[in-house]
Design a protein that fits this description.
This protein has 271 residues and is mostly helical. Helices cover 82% and strands 0% of the residues. Helix 3 runs parallel beside helix 9 and helix 5 runs parallel beside helix 9.
Length: 271
């Protein structure tokens, strides 16, 4: 019995010592794991706390393309409008401007200082008679001087013939002043007309009124029409100026003619 108790006690001691050894080993392992985890966290914090240099890559910025100028836009629209009908519009503009400039130069040269001319004619009649007055009128350019010359040529036939001569030759001079104006009016009317012709031609050739075809034709028609209207407006401004200039010269001619008749009546009465 004593031997059995001794054996049990020895077995218990060995068992307790083995369990204690395992417990101590597990605690050591746990402490090592905790220490390694703490070291790793500290190292991670140190890594996070280190400043990170960021290298920015700057891409080259392309410069904005310059916006097209007015002449470039006009050129593009002219090409889109088609060379055929836009060419007609351009011809109307060139011919209309050429005639308008020629008329402006002619009318400015036709303007006369009527007061000075009347004073010179009166002095010539008083000093040298009708021949001297005719010479003064011949040396002066303009329709007023030409009318005075025609009136002085009929001076010997009486005042009534002078008036008829002035009226007749005044109509001739007015026709000369208005020469070429009808062509400017024609170009004003003709310039906007070719607009829809090309559009309807394209539709007729295709035989189908598709939206794309109609839109393309309408674009060409509108560009041509706008170009024609711009030409018409430009020529209309010149035409209005020329009409007002002709009216001014005609009014000056009429006033000067009346003054000439009064001057001739005064001269005949003074004889």
């Amino acid at each position: 019995m004593k031997k059995l108790l001794t054996l049990l006690m020895l077995a218990g001691v060995f068992t307790f010592s083995a369990n204690a050894q395992e417990f101590s080993d597990s605690e050591a392992t746990d402490s090592v794991a905790v220490d390694s985890a703490a070291v790793d966290s500290v190292q991670a914090e140190e890594v996070v706390e280190e400043p990170v240099e960021v290298i920015e890559v700057v891409e080259p910025v392309e410069a904005d393309a310059p916006s097209p100028g007015f002449h470039q836009i006009v050129k593009e629209q002219f090409i889109d409008g088609g060379p055929t009908f836009m060419g007609i519009v351009l011809v109307c503009l060139i011919l209309g401007l050429a005639i308008a400039i020629e008329r402006i130069i002619h009318l400015n040269m036709a303007s006369t200082n009527t007061k000075k001319l009347l004073a010179d004619v009166e002095d010539a009649l008083s000093s040298g008679g009708a021949d001297a007055a005719k010479e003064v009128c011949r040396n002066t350019r303009g329709p007023v001087a030409s009318i005075f010359t025609q009136g002085l040529l009929r001076m010997s036939e009486g005042v009534e013939m002078v008036e008829k001569s002035i009226i007749s030759y005044g109509s001739v001079e007015m026709g000369k002043l208005e020469r070429g104006m009808i062509w400017i009016s024609l170009f004003i009317s003709l310039a906007p007309m070719p607009g829809m012709i090309e559009a309807f031609d394209a539709i007729a050739e295709a035989g189908d009124v598709s939206p794309a075809l109609v839109a393309s034709g309408i674009k060409v028609a509108l560009l041509t029409t706008v170009g024609g209207l711009i030409v018409a407006v430009i020529l209309q401004l010149f035409y209005n100026y020329l009409v007002s200039k002709v009216d001014s010269i005609v009014n000056s001619m009429e006033d000067a003619s009346i003054s000439l008749v009064d001057l001739l009546v005064k001269h005949n009465l003074s004889k």
